[in-house]
Amino acid sequence: MLRPRWRLAVIAGGTWLVILLGLSHENVPALILASLGVTAAIVRLLRGALPQSIWALVALAAVATLSVQAHQPLRYPEALTTHKGDSVGLTAVTEATLTLESRHVRASIVGVGDPRVFGAPAMVFLEPSEGRLPPGTRIEITGELVRNSRYDSRAWLVFAEGWKVVGSAPEIVSAADQMRANFLGHALARGDDGGALLPGLSLGDTQAVSESLTHAMRVSSLSHLVAVSGANCALVVGIAVLITTLLGGGLWWRVAVGQVTLAGFVVLVSPEPSVIRPSVMASITLIAIATGRPHGGLHALSLTTWLLLVSDPWRAVDIAFILSVAATAGVVLGLVPAGRVLTRFLPQRLALPIALPLVAQLAVLPFLVLLTPALPTYGVIANFLAAPFVPFVTLSGLFGAIGGVVSPSLGTFFAGVGWYPASAIAAIARAVSIAPFRDIEWLPGLWGFVSAAVLSAGVWWAMVSTRPRFGAAIAGITLALVLITIELPRLIGSLSKPARWQIAQCDVGQGDAVVINTEAGAVLIDTGDDEWKLRECLKLLGVSRLRYLVLTHFDIDHMGQAPVLAGRVDTVLSGPPDNDLDRLLLAKLADAGATVLQVSEGDFADVGDSTLEVLWPLATPISEPGNDSSVVIHLVPHSEGGLSMLNLGDLGERAQQMLSPRLGSQAVDVVKVSHHGSRDQFPALYRELNAAVGLIGVGGDNRYGHPTEQTLQMLEGLGIIPVRSDERGTITLHRSERGIELWSERDG
After folding, report:
1. Are 638 and 545 part of one and the same domain?
2. One domain, residues 411 and 452
3. Is the domain of 452 the same as that of 476?
4. 267 and 187 in a common domain
5. Which of these ranges, 75-89, 394-408, 609-623, has the smallest mean pLDDT?
6. How buried is 532 (Cβ within 10 angstroms: 0-12 exposed, 13-18 middle, 19+ buried)?
7. Are 91 and 139 in contact (CB under 8 A)?
8. How far is CA 142 from the centre of its chain?
9. DSSP state letter for 662
10. I want to staple 12 with a disulfide (CB 3.0 to 4.6 A). Which of 4, 305, 598, 638 is the partner?
């Protein structure tokens, strides 16, 4: 039998599991119910009566699966499914603030033309508004409707061609948003990182936070501070209850004031997933205290999780909700044991403040690795250093937003007070972001999740078990095995890789990423869309900073990982952006310190021993942004010992035909074959290039059939050796006395 303490936790965990199974396919919930019914019938026949545990299991699964089934027609109503992929007129209600820079917003679709829809969740991509619009604003949209993945909390993607406001937000929501906007203005008047970060830390308003500071907060494991969470809710409610107690209020008065304060705080900061979970949890705890049945933190967390999952099953795959629950569970279960262990080595006044971020970090680590395959080295230290400043920031934001309604001077005063602790947190984040060995690379995907979970479990075992050496050994062995798995192939590759390589093709799956090694620094042409593979390649090549980043065009398989290079690029050369999301990407790179230039035919850049010549697109475009507007780079070495190359991006046959006479019969050593070796090629162009090697960036078993047999035969017929990243992995090329030499990480 389970101990009473764990029963609710098992129910919540079982509900989560059943919901995940139910989300996998629309028929799975019915299958689960049928299986449980058959199981219950068999047990009843064999034993005559169903044990209480079986009844509980059947009830648990029934509630969870019925919830999934009940939400299906709400998420995917017939009025929407008949229009998917079409241009359609929609009515939606926004769920977040739309600012002057917003290019997308969470929303609920409430109408398709005349038919009404019951709040189907969507992500709307749109042109920025002319002014700030609060959550709850009703808008009409004309655009393309696309059904999203079953595992995404947003059921639909809407790409707006046009939109307009047709209804205002509720007055209380508008008032709260205006309070946030006023405080944002007071904070920004203080300037620097502190002014930009203060509204995010206190009220969850991150619109003024720069890309470089966002990156610093992420790599230092402090980004959770800009998502208002349980700590903020507890602090605000605690102060309200304390004031009520000092004024002589009884238990029910304290509960009532706490609930009202909590509700007001949620409205003020807007109901994000990280706010909803602790607010519901706090409400349950307050009610339990008032009724004389104060349950422990695990009970409150379990009941909160169960209620929120049943009310919206797609929270089970919402990463913000998952991280919030995991971090809270880590604190509830591990804070006391971890603090007890740390008191053996540290004074008690330091043990608990260090234990708090430690147990939270252990709990969320496997999920963070799924997002970014790396372990933050200084995460616990950064959170320990930042923790003393958080209450001051929270209170200054709360009092500044409320006080600003009474008098602008109060808003200015509290923004000034909060600026100092916010600046301190920003300084900690930036210091950690440039510190050496700021993270440890980890395995990506499922194996990364499993190994990180084993590592966390080992450390946890070492803290709570009477045999800590066993847990420590598990953690140490896991860490060693992962590091060996990652570093050994790289070490072998680094030892065999030529020291003076000139051109490299990274294996980034189905995508392009070509690196040029010059005396003035490295040049990267495109990034692919696999962060881990791109990082692996650049580390293998010894490239830590880029002199130039060339984004040939804005398809995701060419620029998907450009954001991870923010702060590591001197100059960005790009083709024409296709939409506001593309322009926002360029703005973020510029914000992180890069010079961003849009280039066309005739532009060039000297990079030490070589020149990058731009041959395409034309100054007067012949097509819309996209494949046929790809930036074509001609690498011209200044000496006979260098390699020349033509990188064709994704140029199609028609554009290649127009480019051909502009080459002036210039032969090259290497050609980056256009569009991953698709059949859309102009053979005469390749004949004129007379290249020895053709680079093809392609993922194994890709669904596009790249490279096509027709293109491979064309290359081989012209004497061009095709070098595919799916077969060779990352490769390098250099010229030696024997000619062009190729090194491959898979062949050596």
Report:
1. yes
2. no
3. yes
4. yes
5. 75-89
6. buried
7. yes
8. 28
9. G
10. 305
Query: Average pLDDT of 290-311?
Result: 74
> What distances in angstroms separate CA 122 from CA 167, 550, 729, one per listed residue?
18, 33, 38
**Mean pLDDT (whole number) for 671-695:** 91
Residue 303 and residue 148: Cα distance in Å, rounded?
30
Check which CATH number belongs to the domain holding 119 and give it.
2.40.50.140
SS3 content of the chain, % helix, strand, coil (to 5): 55, 15, 30
Co-location of 57 and 83 in the same domain: no
Residues 6+ away with beta carbon under 8 Å from 469: 462
Tell me which of 53-57, 357-361, 439-443 is least confident.
53-57
The total number of structural domains in the chain stands at 5
Tokens representing 667? 């032969």
Is residue 690 a contact partner of residue 715, using CB atoms and an 8 Å limit? no
595 and 719 in a single domain? The answer is yes
d(CA 712, CA 714): 5
- Domain final residue, candidates 396, 411, 440: 440
Helix (H), strand (E), coil (C) string for 180-203:
HHHHHHHHHHHCHHHHHHHHHHHH
Give the span between the Cα atoms of 648 and 503, in whole angstroms: 15
Question: Are the beta carbons of 372 and 441 closer than 8 angstroms?
Answer: no
Longest dimension (CA), the chain: 92
Q: Of the ranges 265-274, 322-331, 701-710, which one carries the lowest mean pLDDT score?
A: 265-274
- Report, as an integer, the average pLDDT of 192-200: 87
Is 457 in the same domain as 509?
no
Query: Tokens standing for 34?
Result: 């049928």
Distance from chain centroid for Cα 418 = 28
Contacts of 485 (CB under 8 A, 6+ apart): 443
Please give the residue range of the domain that contains residue 478.
447-493
In a domain, 351, yes or no: no
Which of 125, 150, 169 is where one domain is finished?
A: 169
User: Which amino acid appears at position 285 of this protein?
Assistant: T
| 287 shares a domain with 397 | yes
For the chain, percent of residues with pLDDT exceeding 70: 89
Token pair recorded at residue 641? 């010992």
Q: Judge whether 680 and 651 are in contact, CB under 8 Å.
A: no
d(CA 83, CA 70): 22
Distance CA 494, CA 515 (A): 16
Residue 371 lies in a domain: no
Instruction: Compute the distance between CA of residue 100 and CA of residue 128 in angstroms, rounded to an integer.
Output: 6
Residue 520 per-residue DSSP state: T
Contact residues for 333 (Cβ-Cβ < 8 A; gap 6+): 298, 359
> Could you tell me if 245 and 238 are in contact, meaning their C-beta atoms sit under 8 angstroms apart?
no
Residue 627 maps to which CATH number?
3.60.15.10
Evaluate whether residue 342 is within a structural domain.
no
546-551 and 569-574 beta bridge pairing: parallel
Tokens describing residue 87: 């241009």
Residue 340 lies in a domain: no
Contacting residues for 77 by C-beta, under 8 A, at least 6 apart: 117, 118, 120
